[in-house]
């Protein structure tokens, strides 16, 4: 094995060799004053036909440069049948037995008042029914409820009690967070049960 090193210091060549050999004529295109040459065997470069990317098979797809690669198509979940699930869970029977309908009527919320106020059309506008069938809604409601339930006590802990205004702020934020977190938790439970009963 022979190793040759050519170094240049300010234009004067310096040759170092491990074995004395005849100087070889060097091509000016490939020679460099900082070239280190080794006579060890080199691996042949793989040909284009042998590379993995150029194999042609019936189940491969070629994407041009700059185009996005393969996409994982989301598995389509079966649609949620909201009214069927309400019937399976017997929610209307449970609401009737709990006296929710009569309590709502006492507060002035009857079917005719719902119709007059246009609450059903507003629910459609805001996408309440589509949100009830969306698979991401239960996770969002649970995250919201846990965030609110953590925000109330942390506000009480972090806000100082130096004057009356800060104490009132603590009470108001804690009550809103506890009520909102509890409502979001109940909505999460209801929506997840409606979606599970397929």
Automatic annotation (TrEMBL):
- Biased composition range(s): Polar residues: 25-41
Give the residue spans that cross the bilayer.
Answer: 139-159, 171-191
User: Which residue ranges are recorded for the region named Disordered?
Assistant: 18-76
Q: Which UniProt keywords apply?
A: Membrane, Transmembrane, Transmembrane helix
The record's listing under Pfam families reads: DUF1118
Keyword set includes Membrane: yes
Give the top-rank taxon of the lineage listed in the UniProt record for this protein: Eukaryota
**Coiled-coil stretches noted in the UniProt entry, renumbered to this chain:** none
Q: What is this protein called?
A: Wiskott-Aldrich syndrome protein family member 2
Write down the species: Theobroma cacao
């Amino acid at each position: 094995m022979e190793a040759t090193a050519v170094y240049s210091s300010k234009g004067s060549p310096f040759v170092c060799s491990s074995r004395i050999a005849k100087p070889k004529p060097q091509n000016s295109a490939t020679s460099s004053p900082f070239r280190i040459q080794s006579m060890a065997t080199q691996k042949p470069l793989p040909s284009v036909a042998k590379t993995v990317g150029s194999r042609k098979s019936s189940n491969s797809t070629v994407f041009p440069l700059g185009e996005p690669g393969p996409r994982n198509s989301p598995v389509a979940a079966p649609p949620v049948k909201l009214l069927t699930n309400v019937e399976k869970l017997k929610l209307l029977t449970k609401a009737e037995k709990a006296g929710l309908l009569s309590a709502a009527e006492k507060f002035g919320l009857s079917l005719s008042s719902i119709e007059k106020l246009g609450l059903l059309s507003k629910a459609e506008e805001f996408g309440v029914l589509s949100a009830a069938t969306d698979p991401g809604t239960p996770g969002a409601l649970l995250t919201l409820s846990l965030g609110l339930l953590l925000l109330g006590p942390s506000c009480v802990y972090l806000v100082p009690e130096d004057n009356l205004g800060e104490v009132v702020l603590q009470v108001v934020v804690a009550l809103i967070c506890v009520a909102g977190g509890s409502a979001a938790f109940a909505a999460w439970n209801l929506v997840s049960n409606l979606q599970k009963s397929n």
